[in-house]
Amino acid sequence: MAEAFKLILSDPNVKAILVNIFGGIVRCDLIAEGIISAVKEVGIRIPVVVRLEGTNVEQGRALLQHSGLAITAAESLTEAAKRVVASVVR
Question: What is the pTM of this model?
Answer without folding.
Answer: 0.90
